[in-house]
Amino acid sequence: MNSFSEAMSKIRGCNNLILCHDQADSDAIGAAYALSQLIGGDVGVPVEVANHAEHLIERLSMTVIHRPNVTDYTNVVVVDTAHSTQLCDSVPEKFFVIDHHPNNHLLEKAEVALYDTVSSTSQLVYRVIQDLHQPIDRQMAMALCAGILTDTIHFHRGDPEAFQVFGALLQAGGLTHEEILDLYIMQDTDDREAILDAALAANKQTIAGYHIVTAEIASNIPTYGARALFDLGADVSIVGYRSDREVEVRMYIRKTLCDHHAIQAIDLFRNTPSMKKGKTWGYGLFAGFRSSKVELGIIFKDLRKVLDERLTR
Ligand SMILES: [Mn+2]
């Protein structure tokens, strides 16, 4: 048994907090839910949960504590988090870590960690459950499947373990693939309309044979919008949402841009001048951005310019 599984078995039933990163996504929520069922305890997020994970939380009937007081707990297990800044004001003094992100800065300070740069934290939680020979019920299986599905971008990428564990979880939980996909299908007709309107009003530019599509979306679901445009055929889909307070931007890029032009989605966001005034996250094929200081139009223009430079040089 690995030392993390051993540590989890020791703190079972204690006063535990399972702490997600801020803007907790489905992998963080799914992993935290399964872990909370395994060892007992509360699930918390530093400030808020990502929009797309709300439906999962509802389906799992789970309670998520916002801004938990970490000193109220004997043990804190930090899930799916690579850096203390992602914990905002909820940085515990001592903690356990289970994570899969490259360049994890929390490992040094962790009491015990389970760290492996696989496709999702959810599959690491599955390892712990297996290690401790514990049963998996339908809800736990659904939670972990949701985490794997979203962190593999609906299996557009993913290591063999992600596929294998996903199958094992469907079987263990008596679930179908469709039931997991349903967690992420737009049930709301207004949201679907927003995606359709964004697609119909989108701007397309073809640079060096690549279709670059930018669009604004009227609902706060820019990730879904960007995914939809990408699936329609864009090589780069960039979708922005404007609220009174801030702008949100999401981008998907096709892997050929990574392979032939060494373009990484996250680097593109970080190196676009107007986007330095905001928060950026993501990886090679997907990136997100949020800021209260920049206009959406300027970001789109800047991104097209940077892409033009990178693709035509
Ligand atoms: Mn993750």
Characterization of this structure:
Residues 17-148 form the DDH domain. InterPro entries: DDH_dom, DHH_sf, Oligoribo/pAp-PDE_c-di-AMP_PDE. By secondary structure, this protein is α/β, with parallel strands linked by helices. The protein folds into 2 domains: 3-182, inorganic pyrophosphatase (n-terminal core); 189-312, Roll (Diaminopimelate Epimerase, Chain A, domain 1). The model has no long low-confidence stretch (mean pLDDT 95). The protein has 12 helices and 12 strands. The longest helix has 17 residues, at 296-312. β9 (236-242) and β10 form a beta hairpin. α5 packs antiparallel against α6. The strands form 2 sheets. The chain has a 6-stranded parallel beta sheet. The protein binds manganese (II) ion. Manganese (II) ion binds next to loops. Manganese (II) ion (MN) binds next to loops.
Number of strands: 12
List the ligand species. Answer: manganese (II) ion
Q: Compute the gyration radius: what is it? A: 20 Å
- Report the mean per-residue pLDDT as an integer: 95
Write down the overall geometry: globular
Distance between the termini: 52 Å
Please provide the ordered H/E string of secondary-structure elements.
Answer: HEHEHEEEEHHHHHEEHEEHHEEH
**CATH uppermost class of the largest domain:** Alpha Beta
Q: How many structural domains does the protein architecture include?
A: 2
The structure class reads alpha/beta
The biggest sheet amounts to: 6 strands, parallel
Number of helices: 12
Query: What CATH architecture of the largest domain would you give?
Result: Alpha-Beta Complex
Low-confidence spans: none
**Which fold name is given in CATH as the topology of the largest domain?**
inorganic pyrophosphatase (n-terminal core)
Percentage of residues in helical conformation: 40-55%
Pfam family, one: DHH
Organism: Effusibacillus dendaii
Protein name: Phosphoesterase
Domain DDH: 17-148
